[in-house]
Write a structure and sequence with these properties.
The complex is a heterodimer of chains A (about 250) and B (about 280).
Chain A (H helix, E strand, L loop, with lengths): L5 E12 L2 E12 L3 E5 L6 H7 L10 E9 L2 E2 L7 H7 E4 L10 H11 L4 H14 L3 H4 L12 H13 L5 E5 L7 H14 L4 E5 L3 H7 L2 E6 L2 E7 H6 L4 H7 L5
Parallel strand pairs in A: 3-8, 3-9, 6-7, 7-8
Antiparallel strand pairs in A: 1-2, 1-4, 4-5, 9-10
Helix pairs in contact in A: 3-4, 3-6, 4-6, 6-7
Chain B lengths: L4 H31 L5 H5 L2 E2 L4 E2 L2 H32 L4 H13 L4 H15 L6 H25 L3 H9 L4 H29 L3 H4 L21 H11 L3 H35 L3
Antiparallel strand pairs in B: 1-2
Helix pairs in contact in B: 1-11, 3-6, 3-8, 5-6, 6-8, 7-8, 8-11, 10-11
The chains are: A alpha/beta (about 250), B mainly alpha (about 280).
The complex binds adenosine-5'-diphosphate and magnesium ion.
The site of magnesium ion has 4 residues of chain A, from helix 1.
Amino acid sequence: MVDEQIILSAQQVNLWFGSKQILKNIDISFAKNSVTALIGPSGCGKSTLLRSFNRMHDLSPDARVEGQFLLDKQNLYAKDMSVTQLRRRVGMVFQKANPFPKSIYENINYGLKINGVPKSERDAIIEGALKESYIWDEVKDELNKPATRLSGGQQQRLCIARTVALRPEVILMDEPCSALDPLSTLKIEELIIKLKKDYTIIIVTHNMQQAQRVADKTVFMYMGEIIESGNTHDIFNNPNKELTNNYVKGKFG
Amino acid sequence: MKRLSPFIEWGTLLFCTGIVCFFLFVILYDIISRGAPSLSWEFVSSQPTNGMTKGGILPAILGTVLVTLTTAAVATPFGISCAIYLNEYAVDSWLTRLTRACIRNLSGVPSIIYGLFGLALFVQGLKMGTSLLSAGFTLGLLSLPYIITTTEEALRRIPASTREAALAVGATQFESIRDVVLPTALPGILTGVVLTLSRAAGETAPIMFTGVAFYINSPAGYLNQEFMSLPYHLYMLSTQHQSIEVVRPLAYGTALVLILVVFLLNITAFYIRYKHSKNGG
Ligand SMILES: Nc1ncnc2c1ncn2[C@@H]1O[C@H](COP(=O)(O)OP(=O)(O)O)[C@@H](O)[C@H]1O
Ligand SMILES: [Mg+2]
């Protein structure tokens, strides 16, 4: 095994919503420029775990997070960590494409603006991000069109463009293809594999084939715990645990 | 029996709709047919003369427009801010629940009570006298609960994923509200505001003790003086005038103008909503 540089890690993570414990003793780390798939039955806590990496739980008053999260050796939940800075460094793509109800251009421009990117640099960044997300050719003539008029797959790629425009270190994706048709799904998967060159990607997916197509590492979760993690090929072909085997063979889910 | 029941359901609904439309139509027909003859350029552009039996209702139109604008200036910023706080920032505690219950109850308080309260607070307490400003503030208080409730409903319709989209690119909660949530909710908020204002424009009781007058000598438009208004003018012409029969056509004319003003406000709300739904906003 070659030397891997760990960019993001979480140790001994426990998370509660009210009195209900959702995540139990999670230990996980992500290597730079890798794609990791989080799989597991609905309600096992995949989204919850993902959202703890960009502190999306900060606004839920009944969420309590415990554990040590490190992004490039910096503690994510430290008092002096700016949450807005953190979210720029750890971007997120959601299950249902959620472009701002603004123009295509403005969708990307907004993040740049609030992060203080000078106006003169923005046009080039926006074009670059749209190209990087393989949507430029489809939208270059109508950048002022409302983003909500795009198709579902285009909207999702726009959301990815919005994220990469900020040059994050890590991109979190929560079932980004679950609402898309097979063709759009394929485009996004190709995109994910290309993005790996510059970013570290963590993707939640319900689609076993998708995990095998895009992910280097796969993590299997069950009832708030990590049951098994390792190379995607191993998890799907000779897992150590019976539970993992049953899940990836589609015996439950 | 099975085959008959959809017909009965459909028939009942149609019947109820018909009844409602029928009454609306009768009222409109009555007012328009009797009010239209008095309507003229002179009627909407001149002062009343000869003890209200001749002339126009310009001061009443101006008064109603100005008092409604004052109401808007008072109620809109406070109402919207309050709704933003309640829906976006306040945590779900007994205090928030109590506040919401109070607001709901306030919208059920009869408008005459607001009139008395305005008299005590603005006219006497704050020494603003019976004036357009006092009346506007009183109507503002009356409108607040409606504006808060409709704004909160508009904000609640914005899905969490829209807010999270802004947070995820590094916006603060305030930036997310200012730049994404509010603009998205704006058509709903404005519709609520305009409909509330159109209701306030037609109120009589709250302004009766706080600033409205049957007749003013001076030109209309001073915020610190008494003013004439359409609903009160109509009330006086149809019940308090010494020669009611003579001024009846003028009363109908006033009613028609009042309805037109309110209708104009409603059209505005409709237009805002239409324009935004077309823009996919
Ligand atoms: N904001 C919340 N408040 C309370 N419970 C929640 C909240 N979000 C998620 N949960 C609960 O946490 C559990 C895990 O949810 P989630 O992480 O969304 O699962 P997954 O993404 O794996 O399907 C579920 O039982 C869900 O009901
Ligand atoms: Mg989920």
